[in-house]
């Protein structure tokens, strides 16, 4: 099938919700992907922070192939070794005692919201309010677009579920002003991803923890983008030594195989009784085996140390570009390999030109270049990326 045929079928038959770039990707290896015309790209987007081991990592390919040959799915009416193994790993890594496995980020957050409501309602029937932050992103289901305090995701889908309130991110006074005995939970990304890579001030997350304790509210950290080693720790909240009551994961967890999860402290998870929540596919042996292989490989290949080292190097290189193009780049933000470059103009054209020159990056929030590469990259890959970006920016300043 040639590229034009794929474009034609997509345009004819796929719901027109995605503004896709005009290439057809066919395969990848490590941090590189290839399109159907044979062109090679350095992938600094990794399927939006998903392919953390890069593409076609042999350990992940082997785990998925072997599990597929044994059993892909059997429903949650039965136990499987792969799922029990994953639950134990996620409980141990997070320090939160209980785990539920879903199929995506939105579903993990939806489950976290349901659990928080169930837990808080038992304390008082009015304890239902969920507070989230402006510019956050929590997913595309009705409850999670409501949690997502951005009108562009909500418009046209009203009536939205009730009980959500929004405050400015990184503003403890604003949060304090809306908290009360009715607060069920505060739900935050420890570093905002889709909103433009916003890192809160040191101490903010700890202050949020204190307010939650003061009002008997649960603290939910959405680690869907920032978790799984993306910032150099398994969970971004570890940088601040703040422990949530509930944490959610997805994106990198399966290395590309769809999976999400939420973890909760034992006393919170005890609010769920048999039948209170469920899923047909969630945590099936195939997805669980993939996540188990990802976690094992992360340890074997010392991925966290690599993220810290290569991330620090990359921040230096990106700041070098900022110094070279001060009119175009106003700030470099982020942690580990979750980095953003604030531009003084929209970024889509720069992303498009990078792609034409064999580099895949992305633009979020309109004017922030986002870098969420595979966590296995080396300094050499950073150099290769920066060289392309440099040439594209040099062209952009001339316009
Ligand atoms: C991507 C993302 C989600 C939604 O995940 P899906 O798998 O697309 O449903 C939720 N929260 C955050 C922080 C994300 O980055």
TrEMBL record:
Sequence positions bearing N6-(pyridoxal phosphate)lysine: 251
Gene3D superfamilies: Aspartate Aminotransferase, domain 1 (3.90.1150.10), Type I PLP-dependent aspartate aminotransferase-like (Major domain) (3.40.640.10)
EC number from the UniProt entry: 2.6.1.11
Residues that bind N(2)-acetyl-L-ornithine: 140, 279
Note accompanying the cofactor annotation: Binds 1 pyridoxal phosphate per subunit.
One Pfam match: Aminotran_3
Cofactor annotation: pyridoxal 5'-phosphate
Catalytic activity: N(2)-acetyl-L-ornithine + 2-oxoglutarate = N-acetyl-L-glutamate 5-semialdehyde + L-glutamate
Gene Ontology annotations for the cellular component aspect, listed alphabetically: cytoplasm
Keyword Metal-binding appears in the UniProt entry: no
Any Gene Ontology biological process: L-arginine biosynthetic process
Main location, first listed in the record: cytoplasm
Subcellular location: Cytoplasm
Binding positions for pyridoxal 5'-phosphate per the UniProt entry: 105-106, 137, 222-225, 280
Pathway: Amino-acid biosynthesis; L-arginine biosynthesis; N(2)-acetyl-L-ornithine from L-glutamate: step 4/4
Presence of the UniProt keyword Glycoprotein in the record: no
Protein keywords: Amino-acid biosynthesis, Aminotransferase, Arginine biosynthesis, Cytoplasm, Pyridoxal phosphate, Transferase
Cited InterPro entries: AcOrn/SuccOrn_fam, Aminotrans_3, Aminotrans_3_PPA_site, Class-III_PLP-dep_AT, PyrdxlP-dep_Trfase, PyrdxlP-dep_Trfase_major, PyrdxlP-dep_Trfase_small
GO MF annotation: an example: N2-acetyl-L-ornithine:2-oxoglutarate 5-aminotransferase activity
Assembly mode: Homodimer.
Other notes: May also have succinyldiaminopimelate aminotransferase activity, thus carrying out the corresponding step in lysine biosynthesis.
Similarity annotation: Belongs to the class-III pyridoxal-phosphate-dependent aminotransferase family. ArgD subfamily.
Protein name: Acetylornithine aminotransferase
Organism name: Lucifera butyrica
């Amino acid at each position: 099938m040639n590229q034009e045929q794929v474009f034609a079928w997509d345009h004819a038959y796929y719901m027109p919700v995605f503004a896709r770039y005009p290439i057809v990707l066919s395969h990848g290896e490590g941090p590189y992907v290839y399109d159907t015309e044979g062109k090679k790209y350095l992938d600094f987007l990794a399927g939006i922070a998903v392919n953390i081991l890069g593409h076609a990592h042999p350990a992940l390919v082997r785990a998925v192939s072997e599990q597929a040959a044994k059993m892909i799915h059997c429903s949650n009416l039965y136990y499987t070794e792969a799922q029990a193994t994953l639950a134990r790993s996620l409980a141990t890594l997070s320090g939160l005692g209980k785990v539920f496995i879903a199929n995506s980020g939105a579903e993990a957050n939806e489950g976290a919201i349901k659990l928080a409501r169930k837990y808080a309602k038992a304390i008082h029937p009015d304890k239902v309010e969920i507070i989230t932050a402006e510019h956050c992103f929590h997913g595309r289901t009705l409850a999670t677009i409501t949690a997502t305090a951005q009108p562009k995701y909500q418009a046209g889908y009203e009536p939205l579920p009730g009980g959500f309130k929004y405050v400015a991110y990184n503003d403890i006074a604003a949060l304090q002003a809306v908290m009360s005995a009715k607060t069920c939970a505060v739900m935050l990304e420890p570093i905002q991803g889709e909103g433009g890579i916003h890192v809160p001030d040191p101490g903010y997350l700890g202050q949020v923890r204190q307010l939650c304790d003061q009002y008997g509210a649960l603290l939910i950290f959405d680690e869907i983008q920032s978790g799984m080693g993306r910032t150099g720790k398994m969970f971004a909240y570890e940088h601040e030594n703040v422990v949530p009551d509930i944490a959610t994961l997805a994106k990198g967890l399966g290395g590309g195989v769809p999976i999400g999860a939420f973890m909760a402290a034992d006393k919170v998870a005890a609010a769920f009784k048999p039948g209170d929540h469920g899923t047909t596919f969630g945590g099936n042996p195939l997805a669980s085996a993939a996540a188990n292989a990802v976690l094992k490989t992360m340890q074997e290949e010392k991925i966290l140390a690599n993220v810290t080292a290569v991330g620090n190097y990359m921040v230096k290189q990106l700041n070098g570009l900022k110094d070279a193009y001060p009119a175009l780049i106003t700030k470099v933000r982020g942690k580990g390999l979750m980095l953003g470059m604030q531009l003084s103009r929209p970024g889509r054209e720069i992303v498009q030109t990078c792609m034409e020159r064999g580099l895949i990056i992305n633009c979020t929030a309109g004017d922030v270049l986002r870098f969420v590469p595979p966590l296995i990259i080396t300094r050499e890959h950073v150099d290769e990326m920066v060289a392309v970006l440099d040439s594209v920016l040099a062209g952009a300043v001339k316009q």
